[in-house]
Amino acid sequence: MSDEKRAVPEDVSCDIPTIKMLKIAQEKGQETIFDRAVKMKQCNIGTEGICCKNCSQGPCRIPLTKAIKDGTEPDKRTGLCGATAETIVARNFARMVAAGCSAHSDHGRAVVETFRAMAYGEAKDYTIKDELKLREVAGYFGIATTVQEGDAEVPRDKWDIAKELADAATAQFGQQRGEMAYLKRAPQPTYDRWTKHGVKPRGFDREVVEIMHRTHMGVDQDYKNLVKQASRCSLANGWGGSMMATDFSDILFGTPYPTLGNINLGVLSHTKVNIIVHGHDPLLSEMIVAAVHTPDMIEYAKSKGAEGYVVAGMCCTANEILVRHGMPIAGDYLQQELAVITGAVEAMVVDVQCVMESLASVSECYHTKFITTMPIAKCASGKNTMHVEFEEHHAMEKAKEIVKIAADNFKNRKDVNIPSDQNKMVVGFSTEAIKYHLGGTFRGSFVPLNDNIINGRIRGVVGVVGCNNARVEHDTVHIDLIKELIKHDIVVLTTGCSAMACGKAGLLTPEAAAIYAGPGLAEVCETVGIPPVLHMGACVDNSRILTAATEVVKAGGLGKELADLPAAGAAPGWMSEKAVGIGQYFVTSGVNVMLGVPLPIYGSPKFANYLENEIYDLYGGKWAYEPDPIKSAHKIIAWIDHNREKLGINVARERVLMDMADRQKIEAA
Predict the structure, then answer these.
(1) Which domain holds residue 11?
(2) What pLDDT score was predicted for residue 4?
(3) What is the mean predicted confidence (pLDDT) over 418-438?
(4) Tell me, what DSSP letter sits at residue 226?
(5) Same-domain status, 96 and 242
(6) pLDDT digit string, tens, across residues 250-275
(7) Residue 495: CA atoms inside 13 Å, Cβ hemisphere, count?
(8) Which end of the chain is more exposed for a tag (fewer CB within 10 A), N or C?
(9) Would 284 be classed as within a structural domain?
(10) How many Cβ atoms from other residues are within 10 Å of residue 624's Cβ?
């Protein structure tokens, strides 16, 4: 690489181990995504969403002129077929929603199918870890959890419930009529909005297929109608596929509760076999974690000269094994190549989503075995690339096969460069865990949170989620935004790679509140014993933010629907189509969403205005874009203050003990 085509490590990341490994990679002539981002410029027309490739008459590219943008000349741009700028942009946006929602909901489908195989005795390596969650989820599907025996009502057998629940959940994906079961979990006024505007999803697969049909050449040419279908599809994901992924993972593997973990490349070991599990599907990673603790696998590692194993996660597979087992995180999306470059990784085991194809070529320069495991996610072959197909019916057997491949590779290490840096963090704040922290086993409730929002100690709640993006400074956009929010007494809920950025920055410990949080939030955190930033899980677990927000509404005093809450969402470094699907289901649920990387919509000012303003009147939520994280934070704070003013709680008050009648008076005001 010539110097002018290299990234300057200190300019592209604030994370010390990342900077160290980038320098080592460049010394060895190893190109990474950071270097490619410098060398490869973005397409201006593509970033504005005004390139249509939906038929072979194109691509049709219709650049936005300054005169149209300024409003001094009418927008008469069309593609060859006459499609207007807003139609082209709307089609592209809807297809991003469909693709992103498909990724998360297909993840949910895999978990539900494994749950079904377990329930019917076909996947014997899995079991029910959380029976209470099983019974709770069954209730959402209208499945009885008790039976009548004489005069007594007794709990129904958990396996009978599991079989019925498995069949009901599986049917949600292909359902053709009616509505998806989880929609009723939302506050009634939010549900009523969806009914009024005709966006209640029928079944997930149907909504995706309809988007693909509508966006075919010559079908739907009304941009508002296209967004309506994108909204329906997004709800099928947020209140359907993604929510099922979270719930059924909890049933199978246990609902997360706070646990201590470590993060960054320093978690890798000089003396143990290092296995990285990377992607998003917990089905395999759970088995690998179990496999490395079996006596035969421990002995196998020792026979190969290693002291044991380190199973470290990357991307959201990392979050899955972290929140349930405390297993360490090696890094986030932008660190996956760097993990291999340490020379210490025996096996990079990947499942689905956010896996760079460059891992195959990087692994060829080291001893790392790059192992793909899913039939839908193979990679072009390389000398160190191999495919070990995972399937749930022989889960432990396949996991042990992979572990042995890694152990056999331990002897092939050469030049090892493991950064020493790592951070401790407290993670695993599921909705159930937050409720427990706020009231204990018998009095778990969101009322204490509501009371502190009402009295002004906590200003509001923001979910900061989403990916890393090589086009913006690694980690910095997340950390700067979140520090500014918590400084102004806003509690942050975080998932995915954003949560990892927080962990590396030391924001996921209770001690962080005294350093970074405003006085009100710091006082609450100290009293309850929580960090100012709560790690809620993987990116698919953004559904936990929806259920937590619903609990806040139920607790009273902060309005009747999600749109009333002093709350917002943000994705300062979003990268994948999944983030667009997530953002749209938050907007359609009544939550404003702030981005730090623009949506590809600004080639049509009319369409951009619809998503950033007009859509608010329908659902109570809208999109916004601000690249500067500090300015972004203050725009979010303005949203929160606006909702506080509407609720009549914009003036800080002394803490008072409020009963339900007091909160109902506030609601009625």
Answers:
(1) 3-47
(2) 62
(3) 95
(4) H
(5) yes
(6) 999 999 999 999 999 999 999 999 99
(7) 28
(8) C
(9) yes
(10) 17
Q: What pLDDT shows up at residue 179? A: 98
SS3 541: helix
Same domain, 516 and 591: yes
The verdict on 221 and 326 lying in the same domain is no
Q: What length does the chain have?
A: 669
For 480-514, how does the pLDDT look when each residue is reduced to its tens digit (9 = 90+)?
999 999 999 999 999 999 999 999 999 999 999 99
DSSP state of 610: I
Please tell me whether residues 401 and 448 are part of one structural domain: no
Strand-pair category, 490-494 with 460-464 = parallel
Mean of all residue pLDDT scores within the chain: 95
Nearest CA-CA partner of 453 in 352, 330, 551: 551
Q: What is the CATH number of the domain that holds 119?
A: 1.20.1270.30
| Separation CA 497–CA 506 (nearest Å) | 14
DSSP H helices in 74-151 = 85-119, 131-140
Pairing outcome for strands 259-263 and 152-155: unpaired
How far apart are alpha carbons 9 and 14 in whole angstroms? Answer: 9
Q: What is the mean pLDDT of residues 649-668?
A: 58
* Residue appearing with tokens 């990916």: 467
Q: Are the C-beta atoms of residues 378 and 386 closer than 8 Å to each other? A: no
Across 487-611, the runs of DSSP E, i.e. the strands, are 490-494, 533-535, 567-571, 593-595
Beta bridge partner(s), residue 278: 314, 350
| Other CB atoms within 10 Å distance of the CB of residue 413 | 16
Share of the chain above pLDDT 90, in %: 93
Closest CA to 371 of 394, 397, 349, 404: 349
Same domain as 117, residue 169: yes
Q: Find the largest Cα–Cα distance for the chain.
A: 82
Separation between Cα atoms, residue 478 and residue 1, nearest integer Å = 30
* Whether residues 517 and 589 fall in one domain: yes
Given 356, 380, 412, which residue is the final one in a domain?
412
Q: Say if residue 284 is in the same domain as residue 249.
A: no
Last residue in a domain, options 218, 253, 288: 253
The pLDDT, as a whole number, for residue 1 is 47
Q: How far apart are CA 148 and CA 567, in angstroms?
A: 44
Provide the sign of the torsion angle of the four alpha carbons 162, 165, 170, 171, taken in this order.
positive
Tokens 């090589």, residue?
470
The answer to the question of residue 589 being in a domain is: yes
Residue 421 DSSP symbol: -
**Assigned domain for 52 exists:** no
List residues bridging with 494 in a β-sheet: 464, 535
> Against a cut of 0.90, is the pTM above it?
yes
Name the region of 354 (left: φ>0; alpha: ψ -120 to 50; beta: rest): left
The domain total for the chain is 4
Q: In this structure, are 505 and 654 located in the same domain?
A: yes
Residue 63 placed within a domain: no
